Amino acid sequence: xxxxxxxxxxxxxxxxxxxxxxxxxxxxxxxxxxxxxxxxxxxxxxxxxxxxxxxxxxxxxxxxxxxxxxxxxxxxxxxxxxxxxxxxxxxxxxxxxxxxxxxxxxxxxxxxxxxxxxxxxxxxxxxxxxxxxxxxxxxxxxxxxxxxxxxxxxxxxxxxxxxxxxxxxxxxxxxxxxxxxxxxxxxxxxxxxxxxxxxxxxxxxxxxxxxxxxxxxxxxxxxxxxxxxxxxxxxxxxxxxxxxxxxxxxxxxxxxxxxxxxxxxxxxxxxxxxxxxxxxxxxxxxxxxxx
Length: 291
What we know:
Blueprint: H1 2-5, E1 7-14, E2 18-26, E3 32-40, H2 48-64, E4 73-79, E5 84-90, H3 97-102, H4 111-130, E6 133-134, E7 143-145, E8 151-153, E9 160-161, H5 186-189, H6 195-212, H7 225-233, H8 245-248, H9 255-265, H10 276-281, H11 283-286
Antiparallel strand pairs: 1-2, 2-3, 3-5, 4-5, 6-9, 7-8
Domain Protein kinase: 6-285
Binding site for ATP: 38
GO biological process, one term: negative regulation of glycogen biosynthetic process
C-alpha cells in the first residue's frame, strides 16, 4: 500500500463502521500527493461474505462514476491482518456542507449560495440516475466542499443500481435507507418505492436544511409534529399557494417558481412528486448561476 499511496496518517473523519484517514505520498520531485483512505470494518454479527460484498459493491459503484460533483475513487485494498478494506479516494480539504451550515448558528446559508450548491447536487443526481444508480443517502454530511465551492458527493455505501442497461423498468426498493430526517414518507408506509423519487425528496430536504440552518423535522411521518405542520401548510385546494414558513420566508429571485419546485419535490405522494425533468425546466433552476 505505502509504495502506491504513501504513509497512512491521522484520522479526518469517523462513521459507525468506517474511518477516513489521510495518506501522503512523496513524489520524486519532492511534491506531495494526498489521498483520503476509507477504512471499512465488519459490522457486529455481520457475515464475512456479506461484509465483502457490501464494501466491494460500494467500490464498484463509486469507482465507475465520472462527474465533477462526485468524489473520485481510485482503488481498493485489503489489510488481511485486521480484516479491513481500504478504499483510496481523492482528498477534499474543506470539510462538508453540514459544517458550513453549522457555522451560520441557525440562520442558514444565503440564498445565492444555497441555490448554487443545490444546482450542483441536482446535476450530480441527474447524472447518477442517467447511469442507473440511486444514492439513497443524500444529506449535507455527505456533500464535501472544495476550496472553490465545488460540491463532491461521497458515501455510496447504500447506493444501488435501479436499472441495468438491458432492463426497461425500474427496480423498487424496500424499507428505509439513509438518514431518517432525509427519508421520504413512502419509505415508512409503502411495501416498496421508487428510489429515484426518494433521492429527489432528499434533495428537497437538503435545500431546506441549507436555508433553515437545521433539520425541519426528525422523520417524515405523522408521528412527528413538525412534519404534520408541514402537511397542514403545504399547497392544497383550500391553500393553493402554500403557507409553510420555512419555504415561504426564503428571499430571492423567482420566488414562486422556487416554492413550486420545493413543494413539488417534497410532495408526500411519490406518484405526483416532481421529477428531475420538471425541476430542470423550472424558471428558478434555469436561472441559478453555478458558482
